[in-house]
Amino acid sequence: MSSTSSSDGDLDKTISEWINNADAESDQGIVKNDPVIEDRIKNKSFFSQFQKPKAEEFVAPDEFENPSEAFPSEMSCTQQFDELVKCYSIGGQVRNVYRYGSIRDCNDRWSMFKFCIRTRLDSEEGKKKKIYEFYRQKAAEDLKNGSSEDVWKARTQRRKPLFSDQEDGAEGASQ
């Protein structure tokens, strides 16, 4: 094989040689006992490796009764410590003053970090359930505090683009 191809014919020949070599290697047993990979090699489909797995290939997690819940069941104490330091840093406080007009007390970050340290000693299953409950309660408290949706009304109709075909036709025709 040449390192550079001057025409499409040479490139097609190089690709077909590469596929034949891959078939020969798979026939020699380099890929053993993996029906998914063997099927994809037989079909010679490069993009098949990016397809979603079939139903028989997928194993659903059975950690909780409803695995589609959006609350995490793991917590990184390093990440919680980083968030705590970021909250107390000058940049974090300036950001809070800019956004909300006051200095933040960071009690929520302290409570998350302390919770993470306390749960490290629990069993794996107990830890997952406690972390799941912690995030669920935190989300419920956040809903009680309100959000921007309490102030702003959601649009029911799509807005017209700002500079498109206006009635007088003079201002929107600058293209």
UniProtKB/TrEMBL annotation:
Tree of life domain: Eukaryota
Pfam families: PANTS-like (PF11326)
Family annotation (InterPro entries): Pants/Emi1-like
PANTHER family for this protein: UPF0545 PROTEIN C22ORF39 (PTHR28052)
Name under which the protein is recorded: Early meiotic induction protein 1
Species for this entry: Lipomyces starkeyi NRRL Y-11557
